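REQUEST ID: PR-0412
SUBMITTED BY: lab tech R.K.
PRIORITY: routine
TASK: structure prediction, single protein chain
INPUT:
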Amino acid sequence: MGLSLFIGVVEVMAGIPRVPCTVFGMVQDSYGIPYLSNARITLCNSEATNAWQNINGLLNYGLNIQMLLNMDSGTGDRYAAYAVRAGEELQIIVEVDGVVQPLLEGATLTVPAAGSDIELNLTTGTDSDGDNLPDEWEYQMMAASYGMITNISQILPNDDFDGDGASNMHEYLSGSFAFLDYDLFAIEDLERSKDGWFIFRFLSVPGKSYSVEVTDSLSGASVWSIGAFSLNAEGSSTLTAVVGDGYYRTVYIEATADQQFMRIVVK
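STATUS: complete
OUTPUT:
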C-alpha cells in the first residue's frame, strides 16, 4: 500500500511601499503658545510606533511638526511594522517633559491616501464646556475679570469681553489678553519706503509664529499664498516665518505684482 503526500503552497502577497504621507502642523499649549522645546509627538498603532518627532523650534512656514508616514499597499502582510495603510486610525500622543498631555482635538488620526499631505494642529489641555477654548485659558480670563465672570461657561468664543473689536477666540489664537482692551493683534505702523519696501510693525507674543500672506485679488475666490520677507531693508526676502519675542517686530516685504494685497498671520 503506497502513501502519497501532497504539500500545497499558498502564496501570500506582502505589502509593498507606497508614496509616504506628510503630516505637518502646529502643537501648542493651552494658552495658545507653540511648543518650541521639551515636547514630543508620536503616531502609533497597536503594533508599532509609526512616526515620531521631538519638537525643537519652528520649521518652515511657522510649523513645529513635519513627519513622514511610510505607506503600505494594504495587500497581505505589512512590508514593515511601522508602515501604515490608508483609512487606518493612529493614536496621537503628545508628551511635554515626558508627561502625556490631554488633547482638545482628540487623540486619533485617520491615515489619508498615499502621497497625501495632512495638516495636524493640536492643543494640549481640556475643554469641558466644548467651546474650543481651553479651560486653562478660560480660568486665567475668569481670574482677571474681577468677579465679572464666575464660571467658564460664561466665556463664549464670539463674544468680545474687553470690547476692543477682537473676539475672545481671536484673542486666544493671537496670544493677546482678552481682558485688556488695549492688547490685541494689529498692524500698528504701515508705510512704504522710497526703495519700494512695504513695512509692517506689530507687537509680537513670545513663542507665536508670524508669517506674511499675499494675494492679487480680494474677490470671493481669493487665494492667499505664503510670501517671503526680510527683517531689515538691507536684507533679502528669504524668511517665511518669524518667532515673536514679546517686543515689536518689523517686517519688510517687496511687492512682486502691480496690484497685491498682504496680511500678517499669527499661529
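NOTES: The chain has three domains: 17-123, 135-174, 187-266.
REVIEWED BY: pending
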